[in-house]
Every structure is written in C-alpha cells, then in structure tokens.
Amino acid sequence: MAELLQEQGHLFRLEDFLPYRLSVAANRVSRAFARRYAQEFGLTIPEWRVLAVVGDSSPISAGEIVLRTAMDKAKVSRAVAGLLDRDLLRRAVNPLDQRRHMLTHSRKGRQIYETIVPRALALEAEVTQELSAEERRLLGSLLQRLIRQASLLDADEGPDPE
Amino acid sequence: MAELLQEQGHLFRLEDFLPYRLSVAANRVSRAFARRYAQEFGLTIPEWRVLAVVGDSSPISAGEIVLRTAMDKAKVSRAVAGLLDRDLLRRAVNPLDQRRHMLTHSRKGRQIYETIVPRALALEAEVTQELSAEERRLLGSLLQRLIRQASLLDADEGPDPE
DNA sequence: GCAATATCGTTGCAAATGCAACTACTGTCA
DNA sequence: TGACAGTAGTTGCATTTGCAACGATATTGC
After folding, report:
1. Which nucleotide is nearest to B60 (CA to C1')?
2. How many angstroms separate the CA atoms of B112 and B51, rounded?
3. pTM of the complete model
4. How far is CA A110 from CA A41, A54, A81, B111, in A?
5. Residues B153, A127: C-beta atoms closer than 8 Å
6. Which residue in chain B has the smallest CA separation from A151?
7. B147–chain A Cβ distance below 8 A for any pair
8. Each residue of A124-155: pLDDT tens digit?
9. What is the phi-psi region of residue B112: left when phi exceeds 0, alpha when psi lies from -120 to 50, beta otherwise?
10. Which of the residues B153, B156, B157, B160 would you substitute to probe the A interface, choosing the one with the greatest number of A C-beta atoms within 10 Å?
C-alpha cells in the first residue's frame, strides 16, 4: 500500500501548478518588456512603474506610489532617486508635511512617458494577440481577483510587501 | 492642443496594465507560498521547484530540470547543491555520460515532497477559492497561451532565460 | 509646550539573481 | 589517435532585492 502510493506518485505536475505558471508568465512578459522598451530608454522596471504612476496621478508622494504599486518602499525610493538623477522627475517639498515630497514629471520625463505608453500598450497587444477581446478582459479580471485573494491570505500571517 | 493632451493624460493606468498585474499576482502568490510552506521546511522557491520536478520525473538531470522549469541553469545548480547538502536529493553519475548527474529524491527528500504537495495544492485551492472550476481551468489555459506567446516574442531578440 | 510615539523616506547589509567565464567530459572528423 | 568543437554543470562577479535600522519631521497626550 505504501508501495503503491510511492509507485503511482501524486499526479502533481509543477507545470500545471498555478503559482508556478503565474511566475513563469510574469517573468517572460516582464523580460520581453524590459528588453524591448525599458532598456532602450535606460529605465529599469521599477523606474518605469514610477514614471507610469506619476503619469496618471501627479503630484504624488513616494508613499502613495508604494500603496498603489505594491512595491517595497526601498525599491520605490531607489527608483525615484534614479529618475531624479537623470532629470526625469521633479521633487517639491510639501509645505504641509516636509517629510512628504511631491513628485511630478519633468519635461523630459513626460516626453519619455508619452513615448513609452503607446509602446507598452502595443506590447501588451502583441502578447495577447492570440486571445479574443473577451478572453483578454477575462484574464485581467481573473488576475485581479487572484491578487485580492492572495493579499488577504498573505495579510493573515504578515505584512504586505512587494 | 499640446496643452489639451497634457491635461487629459493618456488614460493609461498601471494597475490595469497586464504585465504589471501579472507581476503583482505572481509575487503575491509566491510570497504566500514561501511564507506558509516552503519556509517551514527550510526550502527556497527554486529548491521546492527542483524537488517537485524530481518528484514526477525521477531520475532526471539538471539540464532537463532547466528545460522543464525555465529557470536559469545557475539557479538550478545552486538549488540542487542546497538540496544535496541537506540530504534531500541523491546524485548518481550516469555511466553513459559522466557530465550528466542523475538526480533522485532521498528518503528524506521524498518525505518532504509528499508532505508539501498536498499543502501546495491546498494553497492553490485557497488562492482560487473565489473562482469557479471553469474559471480556474480558464485562467490556467490563458496563462499557458500567454507564456507561449511571450516566449516567442522574447526569442525574437535574444535567448530564453528565466 | 514638550516628551513620547508614529510616519516618511533613505541607507546598510546580507541574500538572491543573471550572466559569462570556466572546468570537465563527450563526440566528431581527419 | 588526437586535436577541435560542443554540452553539462559550477563558480565568480556585479546588480538587484527585501528587510531592518536609522534620521528627520509630524502628531498625540499630558
């Protein structure tokens, strides 16, 4: 009987395991993105993310970026520092709270942002070109629900990091 | 006009961007997994993956594990070294090709594998508990197709790393 | 008004990662 | 057979990451 269990195995295939598939899919897509676009502008993925969030909610503080992107605050801090160095972001002190720096695009930053956004959307379209519009919509919403659920589970036993 | 473009923005929201959602979902789920199970057995994610692949295809060489898991070969090499150190894996020289080491579970390795697999499946079930059976199936297959497509795009401009 | 506490962002540090160079072994072709 | 090219796996190194400790500013409670 123990013998039998050993022989037949568990019918567990890593390739079919959801966390594994998710991880491979995310890596592949991020990599394609980094290779084709981010790299060309000298942006890392975290830097591009910061630029993107500032793009639709400016001015914004580092802390708010952390909340919205689920990145570690050190990661955001370093990305912001890199973008400031290269004059893609401006930082103003908030007179109401001097700990909180308000971030906006510089002219150059906005130019890059406006150049990358259409390309990012084009890549997204390419990656999902085999899916119907309905399937794309569905994939997005399934991922959304997964994120919610995983966050809940994660929050049960610890804080909620990147 | 340029003014107007600036004002209205691009209707681009990072949160709705597929590569971003994928990355967040993958991180959240991996983290939940690492926290709850892998950590308890002193396993890193790459080590657990190796243990899992050996579980359903043993004996197997490191190279084959690389092919099946899409992990970098250095990552696999280090995971294997860690597992050998702790006696969770056995390594035999293949007399037909002495470069290729054949890997199998040790008794201890198999025990851990058999303990983790049901827990891993339970976590997968928990993370997807809000989805119907049909939705779960669909999510898996959509991810699969995404991986295929992203691999193709990625392969166009470079090798195919982790 | 000021001590104690909390929040924002930065930095130090150890661990994980990806790439490329390397060693060891195998197969091929002359 | 013996040089050459190719493959399997390991290691070195620079970069990235996550966590925790920290300095600076804000807020709270007395």
Report:
1. D8
2. 9
3. 0.86
4. 13, 9, 17, 56
5. yes
6. B28
7. yes
8. 999 999 999 999 999 999 999 999 888 887 66
9. alpha
10. B153
> What one-letter code names the amino acid at B113?
Y
Radius of gyration of chain A measured on its C-alpha atoms:
20
Task: Considering only the beta carbons, identify the residue of A18, A56, A130 that sits closest to B124.
Answer: A18
Q: Would the CA dihedral through B35, B39, B43, B48 be positive or negative?
A: negative
> What is the Cα–Cα distance from A17 to A7, expressed in whole angstroms?
21
Per-residue pLDDT tens digits for B56-115? 998 999 999 999 998 999 999 999 999 999 999 999 999 899 999 999 999 999 999 999
Count, residues in chain B = 162
Q: Is strand C in 7 Å reach of the CB of B161?
A: yes
3-state secondary structure labels for all residues of chain A: CHHHHHHHCCCCCHHHCHHHHHHHHHHHHHHHHHHHHHHHHCCCHHHHHHHHHHHHCCCECHHHHHHHHCCCHHHHHHHHHHHHHCCCEEEEEECCEEEEEEEEECHHHHHHHHHHHHHHHHHHHHHCCCCCHHHHHHHHHHHHHHHHHHHHHHHHHCCCCC
A79: Cβ under 7 Å from strand C?
Answer: no
What is the end-to-end Cα distance of chain A in Å, rounded? 44
Residue window 48-67, chain A: list those with CB within 8 Å of chain B: 49, 52-53, 55-56
Backbone φ/ψ region at A159: left (φ over 0), alpha (ψ -120 to 50), beta: beta
Token couple for B6: 């600036």
Q: How far is the CA of A12 from the C1' of C26 (A)?
A: 34
